[in-house]
Design brief:
- There is one protein chain.
- This protein has 2 domains: 81 residues, 2-Layer Sandwich (Alpha-Beta Plaits), CATH 3.30.70.3090; 93 residues, ORF SCO4226, nickel-binding ferredoxin-like monomer (Alpha-Beta Plaits, 2-Layer Sandwich), CATH 3.30.70.
- 41% of the residues lie in helices and 30% in strands.
- It is built from 5 helices and 8 strands, in the order αβαββαββαββαβ.
- An 8-stranded antiparallel beta barrel has the order 1-3-2-8-5-7-6-4, surrounded by 4 helices.
- The radius of gyration is 23 Å and the shape is globular.
- It starts with a helix and ends with a strand.
Length: 210
């Protein structure tokens, strides 16, 4: 009887320990997930010095290394004429992104922006793709402000044949990046102008990879 009781007690302890371990692992997993943030890192390679296929090859190298540093590269955009590359990723910090790029191909970003994003719309794929950049000043814009402005863009975009896909906000640096489809950059500018009057500092014609 004593041996039987000890056996039952041991089983109960094992079950309790197993449940506690599972709960701890779940908390750790959630903590790790919460520790990640969205970033957009920018590479300034020089006018005419980069092609989409070159970036695609570098991106493949990033994907081969990213797990080592806990980075998840999501999408990238290339302005071939101006030699600019914008990479969207999820990571714990900027060092993880730099280390991934350094090991993968050695091309380090000139800037890395900590961003939040809006609600993504579907690409229609029938027009050019543009990334327009708003430089509003450090600490002078919030994600809430941009969400409101974006809704105004959506209310006007059809008039100019624009399809806004998504936007990203760096509150600390006051930078907003908007991705859209349009026939030309003037359509993007005119939509912003009528919607809320906040004109971009630059409008880049880009190609997207993922």
């Amino acid at each position: 009887m004593k041996v039987y009781f000890i056996g039952i007690l041991f089983t109960m302890v094992c079950i309790s320990a197993s449940r506690l371990c599972a709960q701890t692992n779940k908390r750790d997993t959630l903590a790790n997930a919460k520790a990640k943030h969205l970033y957009i890192d920018v590479h300034q390679l020089g006018p005419g010095k980069v092609k989409l296929k070159d970036v695609a090859a570098a991106h493949a190298k990033d994907l081969a290394v990213e797990g080592k540093y806990g980075v998840d590269f999501i999408k990238y955009w290339v302005d071939e004429d101006k030699g600019l590359v914008y990479c969207l990723s999820s990571a714990t910090d900027t060092a993880a992104i730099k280390n991934t790029h350094a090991e993968a191909h050695g091309l380090l970003p000139n800037n890395i922006f900590l961003v939040t994003e809006g609600q993504e719309a579907a690409l229609k794929g029938s027009k050019n793709l543009y990334l327009d950049i708003h430089e509003l000043g450090a600490g002078k814009v919030t994600a809430k402000d941009v969400a409101g402005a974006h809704q105004k863009d959506l209310a006007v975009q059809q008039k100019y044949g624009v399809n806004f896909i998504n936007y990203w906000v760096d509150e600390k640096n006051g930078v907003v990046m908007c991705l859209s489809e349009a026939s030309d950059s003037s359509s993007v500018i005119n939509t912003h102008k009528e919607a809320h009057g906040l004109l971009p500092a630059s409008v880049l014609k880009v190609k997207q990879g993922n």
